[in-house]
Amino acid sequence: MCLAVPGKISEIYKSGDILMGKVDFGGVIREACFEAIPEAKVGDWTIVHAGFALNLLSEEDARATLDALNEIADIDAELNKE
Amino acid sequence: MNINQEFRNARLVQAVVDKIRQTATRPWVIMEICGGQTHAFMQTGLDQLLPASIELVHGPGCPVCVTSLELIDKALAIAMRPDVIFTSFGDMLRVPGSRDDLFSIRARGGDIRVVYSPLDSVRIARENPEKQVVFFAIGFETTAPANAAALLQAKALGLKNYSQLVSIVRVPPAMHAILGSPGNRVQGFLAAGHVCSVMGTREYPPIAARYHVPIVVTGFEPLDLAQGLLMCVQQLEAGLAEVQNAYTRVVQEEGNPAALKMLARVYREVDRNWRGIGTIPLSGWGLTPEFAGFDAENRFDLKEIQTRESEICIAGQILRGLKKPHQCPAFGNPCSPENPLGAPMVSSEGACAAHYRYGREIEKK
Ligand code: SF4
Prior knowledge:
Strand order of the largest sheet of chain A: 3-2-1-4-5
Largest interface: A-B, 38 and 55 residues
CATH superfamily of chain B: HypD, alpha/beta domain 2
Helix content of chain A: 25-40%
Number of domains of chain A: 1
Number of helices of chain B: 17
Order of helices and strands of chain A: EEEEEH
Oligomer: heterodimer
Structural class of chain A: alpha+beta
CATH class of chain A: Mainly Beta
Bound molecules: iron/sulfur cluster
Strand content of chain B: 15-25%
Radius of gyration of chain B: 21 Å
């Protein structure tokens, strides 16, 4: 039940007093509550758990992590060649 | 391109695992505190790629597993009432109480409904004004904001027929309990990324310093897990005990300020009894006086509950990392996901269920 999954925000709206929205999880669209990330925009990535968006996901930080790990992989490949 | 997919890149995972193998010069015991990560390690097979020197110990981070027997029995007593619609996350229905589980109450006519989001339970309360609607609000810090949002909405709507049976538990006090216990074997931690996405990382430096353990905030994709382990092993080999963040795309040091604000309004620290482990001081959240009127434990007259734990189940030792599921005599037979004798066999995040589902013990036995 603890699973929280990344998805792309496709819609944001008010339902009553609550900030809600739709999130696209690879084609499956589900509603989520956005009260904890009022700054969210359509097109942003978010992490959703139990119908609640926990946080925004930074594509920039994701890129930086992947670049650093790619570097490890490349150095390894080099070493193996020698 | 979906950037999340790249965190499943097999070539990169292998490279990071190779790096772990090169870095580890001796055996290390590392605990993944979060049941979601236990599940992810096994689902992806990453646990089997690791060098033998790295032993993973599964932590108690499965809310279904640690919700106290007394609260389960209270849930059963409430769900049995004809004036109640009892709402819950699906996993809780098969968790054994002292005598029954929610499924068997439902089979006997109890109105028990599974919800995906706590907000759904508020909707059910609005649609059924003649009934008392109770939500079983279990979870760690990750689930707490969703549960709190439901309470805030119920209050804003002035709902008189809504309440929650609250069992929120928190990770840092559990880490204290594990590290402070005499039999502790854990030398480093992967901290649960989604807990930290809400709470931030500020609670961890005192733990790292006090027990001299590295703590690495880690995500849930295979590459995240491998990276978290690598950083943890690098620290262990260097004799360091720092808090590092291997999940920067989601976790900021300060957490989510809007969520923290909601939590501060709804919850206050309370002692909690963890199933199989016992009471850990100030290890959970209960409702603040402002929300005490929504506390199902106040609303219903629950007679003295006599709990009786299974005599066979060794969940407590598994949740503390002292034993592995295959060391339980009941593992697989008679205890299985179809016939769980203990809570860790119910939820996919429970260590017993994860081991059973991915056949780890059949190989070992
Ligand atoms: S295998 Fe079943 S009985 Fe044994 S510890 Fe796990 S849940 Fe309990």
